[in-house]
Amino acid sequence: MKYIKLLLLLFVTNICFAQTAIIKQDINIKNMVNDVSAKNVEATVRKLVSFGTRHTLSDTTSKTTGIGAARNWIKSEFEKYSTESGGRLKVSFDTFIQPADGNRVPKDATLKNVLATLPGTDPTDDRIFIVSGHYDSRVSQANDAVSKAPGAVDDASGTATVMELARVMSKQKYSATIIFMAAVGEEQGLYGATHLAKKAKAEGWNVVAMITNDIVGNTYGEQTDLKDNRSVRVFSEGVPVTETKQEGGLRIAVGGENDSPAREFARYVKEVAERYVDQLEVKLIYRRDRYLRGGDHTAFSQEGFAAVRFTEMNENFNRQHQDVRVEKGVDYGDMPDFADYNYIQKVCRMNLSVLANIAKAPAAPVNVGIVTSDLTNNTTLKWEAPKSAKPAGYYILMRETTSPYWEKKIYVTENQVTLPYSKDNYFFAVQSVDAEGHESSIVFPKPVR
């Protein structure tokens, strides 16, 4: 009887153990992750709040208040980081005239995004990654350009994230180019992001992925009474808004409605961020943005780029888009004392790990396809190497059709592989990988003969 009980105990114990997961970290990326400072983030948020209001249409001439003072200070900070990087970080205003829209822009206005570009080191690698936060703020009335609008979480938290990324990442080198963007005009209609997205499209930029950090500094939901400092939401669109009728037909035929470039990038974010950042759970939210709402990534999605949004788990609507006041003992307004700076630090580390890993990686394989010339229960995938630096190998990714993220990675060095799994029952994808383990973006295959 004791023997039977022992066997039963061993059996139960064994089935409760999960499979061992091996996590390989790049020590250089891990050191950068550790270099991200909550104190720096807090100092940046408080400095941005000190400008009184950063409303897009506020004062542009004062040196201490308004949107003009804020953007000049952001640019000066980027320039400090550039000096520390040996001048490799290129800082500029992205200036444009925003015509009156009859709504939140009552008259033509000169607006300025603040950009800090870190050029890639490989001249054959034209990939660009963009990370943004918007530096404008607002209160209850969207067109109130004079009232105190601290915007600590919405979105000094995102701007501080981008600035800390530029400070840390500009000291290192990457194969691809990274653009750090402090965007203007988000609260008036995504105008800064729209301007840059249209420019990128018109000039043929190879924007592989774009991240916007918008409202990433609060951990308490006032209505749900939930506090969560471990979870971050990543929003990604399913069916691309730019999809053609032909592309739509192919998507329906292969069942690819959950495998857009934005969804693949969101899955990439989850895997890599959780590899490097402790006490972090990336929540994949399968919609472009929150219910009936939008952000700066939307502008890039509308131009056909893979774009995602990072946002805190529980928004506090007593803070967001509120006049600063106290009513019935309740504080309203987006003040800096209510932000969680250790949480913003975690979000910044999440951004950094993803951007560093993918910018160090080789470009993705091209012409990735599933061979359909014969009916078979096997699946044959084939692809070509990218035109820039040749990868050390490739990962074939595999998941159940009901799984939200990739479950298996198979390392190969050849460019055509046959797997004993049916394309009817699983989804597949391919990504490049270098000798150090940095993975490229993920490519969902098309049917080929």
Automatic annotation (TrEMBL):
Positions of transmembrane segments: none
The keyword Signal belongs to this UniProt entry's keyword annotation: yes
Any Gene Ontology biological process: proteolysis
Keyword Secreted among UniProt keywords: yes
One GO cellular component term: extracellular region
Gene3D superfamilies per UniProt: Immunoglobulins (2.60.40.10), Zn peptidases (3.40.630.10)
Domain of life from the UniProt record: Bacteria
This protein's UniProt keywords: Hydrolase, Metalloprotease, Protease, Secreted, Signal
Domain spans labelled Fibronectin type-III: 364-449
A GO MF label: metalloexopeptidase activity
Protein name: Peptidase M28
Natural source organism: Pedobacter psychrophilus
